[in-house]
Design brief:
With 177 residues, this protein is an alpha/beta fold. It is built from three helices and nine strands, in the order βββαβαβββββα. 23% of the residues lie in helices and 34% in strands. The strands form two sheets. The chain has a five-stranded mixed β-sheet with strand order 3-2-1-4-5, sandwiched between helices. Strands 8-7-6-9 form a four-stranded mixed β-sheet, with no helix packed on it. The longest helix has 18 residues. It is globular and about 45 Å long.
Length: 177
């Protein structure tokens, strides 16, 4: 089996795990929307202390806030390059497992908005998009990507770029209006 280091920082929760196939060997998380930077290092150090070395890195590519995604993706890519192992990106919303036939999952996008996607029988049928909550009907929020689902998706997805759905707040002065 393949040993996977799974990382997701698309939500307020930093999630790190090591899996042997679909068997979870280590699972840890840290709550804090602005604490991904230090949390990811601490969680990976803990994971590596008790688990075999990973053969690949699976990372959630969003959608999510810019800083959280940059921290997780940069860490994942750097870790993989340093160990000469592959890094596979997956859609973070797709890794939120819900036991329903049709549903919409959402995560906080800040600025009174949500990132969302709709699913039918486990397949994404709409999104991901960013909207005001009132513009999206009947969504499930406060769910987080699952480690097993992240790794399972790595067999069918390889998202190469972060899923940024809106422009950043910080722009060069010449671009401001």
């Amino acid at each position: 089996m393949t040993i996977s280091l799974a990382i997701d920082t698309a939500t307020s929760r930093t999630i790190v795990g090591i899996l042997d196939g679909d068997k979870v060997l280590f699972e840890g998380f840290h709550e804090g929307a602005t604490e991904h930077g230090f949390a990811i290092t601490e969680l990976v150090v803990k994971a590596l202390a008790v688990c075999p070395k990973p053969d690949q890195v699976v990372v959630g590519m969003g959608p999510g806030p810019f800083t959280g995604l940059r921290v997780g993706i940069t860490f994942a890519r750097s870790f993989a390059i340093a160990r000469d192992i592959p890094v596979i990106g997956v859609c973070s919303l797709d890794a939120i497992a819900v036991e329903k036939n049709e549903y919409t999952v959402a995560i906080d996008a800040r600025r009174k908005e949500i990132y969302w996607a709709s699913y039918r029988d486990g397949q994404r049928v709409a999104g991901p998009e960013v909207s005001k909550p009132a513009e999206v009907s009947d969504f499930i929020i406060d769910q987080y990507p699952g480690l097993k689902k992240l790794v399972a998706l790595s067999a069918s997805q390889n998202v190469s770029e972060p899923m940024y759905l809106r422009r950043p707040d910080a722009v060069p002065t010449a671009e401001r209006k």
